[in-house]
């Protein structure tokens, strides 16, 4: 490998240690970034195929959307178990297997002729695969490979999700329009399989595997946890659920999902259309949110290395809440300057909450932090699913989305309060040394 001589240079030689000129942690982060870009694109692909599948097979949009719902739910619920599998069997094996599942699920769709097969392929297989490469994967990579720049790298890897959407959605949309949805599905299969050799070649489970320390850290070879991955994931949930910190983090992140993917991501376009804005214009504004999302997430990661994460979360949620309370007055037939300011501001704040949340999970729960964060992320997806349905019901009953925006704004302000309440539990004591789990001293 190209960096092997540099890695060896970092080993202790004649009672002195020479630092490698290029730390392999950066190569691992780069490979993880590529995998995350792909996973985000694969996860969002079904939205491109809703209408083509409806037209070819005659399935209702509700039936096709059900497969997408299963995909989203598994995307969240898989995260803690995937993090546990990575602790048990290694990052490289789990990531490669996840992409193989994505390739299998996408490739099999070209032969399907029944809606249950769509549910199995796109819902279950792709959902499990992309869920294994979700934010729990990010927490595991940064937790093992980085001490210095951990927040920044968390922000960059999280931004890979938005980057994947920006790359794959327009590309697959054009392929579907020009060559049909089967060609788009096979494209996903080919891309997923192409990334697998890169993961097997460059991704490593621990810095010790290459004879180096984590970037900015000390040599540490974590013990392999006893028991199966399911036992580890459920055990981490059981122990974390005994702490106030977990419920504050999970509650705030559930509101995060409700006020982003669940509400704005799902209902912004129809809400703008209610006010006379063309759907194409609204979609363009939503895509612009994704652009600013990349910038905001990376900036948030850098801030996480310098500012207390509780303060950051409190500020992010408060500012998001205020912006959502203002949004109803900004919706109009045209995108006036006020709406563009909202898009800029809201986009910067979209997933800026991820780096400080990952950091706090590691601070409160130690080595079990990535697994616990997987459960916190599951609450994010549950919040998104509830908000998507609730906002639709508000629109059906009242004929407009106004109270959905107001309700989301109030919830975001509540999330800000929950985040600041974490200051009451800053001092920790160990509760489960085998997992490195910790709880507030006053719990």
UniProtKB/TrEMBL annotation:
Supply the PROSITE patterns for this chain.
MFS
Q: Where in the cell is it found?
A: Cell membrane
Regions that span the bilayer = 21-42, 62-87, 94-111, 117-139, 151-172, 184-201, 246-269, 281-303, 324-348, 403-424
Q: Which GO terms describe its cellular component?
A: plasma membrane
The record's InterPro entries line, in alphabetical order, gives:
MFS, MFS_dom, MFS_trans_sf, Proton-linked_MCT
The protein's matches in PANTHER family, at most eight in alphabetical order, are given as: EG:103B4.3 PROTEIN-RELATED (PTHR11360:SF284), MONOCARBOXYLATE TRANSPORTER (PTHR11360)
- Indicate what this protein is called per its UniProt record: Putative MFS family arabinose efflux permease
- Source organism of the structure: Actinoplanes teichomyceticus
């Amino acid at each position: 490998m190209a960096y092997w001589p540099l890695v060896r240079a970092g080993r202790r030689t004649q009672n002195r240690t020479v630092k490698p000129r290029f730390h392999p942690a950066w190569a691992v982060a780069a490979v993880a970034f590529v995998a995350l870009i792909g996973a985000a694109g694969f996860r969002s692909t079904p939205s491109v195929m809703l209408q083509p599948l409806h037209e070819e097979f005659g399935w209702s949009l509700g039936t096709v959307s059900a497969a997408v719902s299963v995909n989203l739910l598994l995307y969240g619920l898989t995260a803690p178990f995937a993090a546990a599998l990575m602790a048990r069997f290694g990052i490289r094996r789990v990531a490669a297997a996840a992409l193989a599942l994505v390739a299998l699920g996408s490739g099999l769709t070209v032969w399907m002729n029944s809606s249950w097969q769509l549910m199995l392929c796109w819902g279950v297989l792709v959902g499990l695969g992309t869920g294994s490469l979700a934010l729990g994967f990010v927490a595991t990579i940064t937790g093992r490979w980085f001490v210095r720049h951990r927040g920044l790298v968390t922000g960059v890897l999280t931004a890979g999700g938005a980057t994947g959407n920006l790359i794959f959605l327009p590309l697959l949309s054009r392929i579907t329009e020009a060559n049909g949805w089967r060609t788009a599905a096979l494209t996903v299969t080919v891309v997923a399989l192409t990334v697998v050799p890169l993961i097997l070649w460059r991704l490593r489970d621990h810095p010790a595997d290459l004879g180096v320390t984590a970037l900015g850290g000390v040599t540490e070879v974590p013990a392999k946890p006893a028991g199966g991955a399911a036992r580890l994931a459920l055990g981490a949930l059981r122990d974390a659920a005994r702490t106030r910190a977990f419920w504050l983090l999970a509650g705030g992140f559930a509101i995060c999902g409700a006020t982003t993917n669940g509400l704005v991501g799902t209902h912004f376009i129809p809400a703008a259309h209610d006010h006379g804005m063309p759907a194409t214009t609204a979609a363009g504004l939503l895509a612009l949110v994704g652009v600013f999302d990349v910038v905001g997430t990376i900036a948030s990661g850098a801030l996480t290395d310098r500012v207390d994460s509780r303060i950051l979360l409190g500020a992010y949620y408060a500012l998001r809440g205020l912006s959502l309370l203002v949004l109803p007055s900004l919706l109009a037939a045209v995108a006036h300057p006020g709406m563009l300011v909202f898009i800029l501001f809201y986009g910067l704040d979209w997933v800026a909450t991820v780096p400080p949340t990952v950091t706090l999970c590691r601070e409160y729960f130690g080595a079990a932090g990535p697994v616990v964060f997987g459960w916190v992320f599951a609450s994010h997806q549950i919040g998104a699913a509830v908000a998507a349905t609730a906002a639709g019901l508000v629109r059906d009953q009242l004929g407009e989305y106004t109270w959905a925006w107001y309700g989301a704004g109030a919830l975001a302000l509540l999330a800000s309060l929950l985040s600041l309440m974490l200051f009451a539990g800053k001092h920790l004591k160990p509760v489960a040394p085998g997992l490195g789990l910790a709880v507030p001293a006053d719990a």
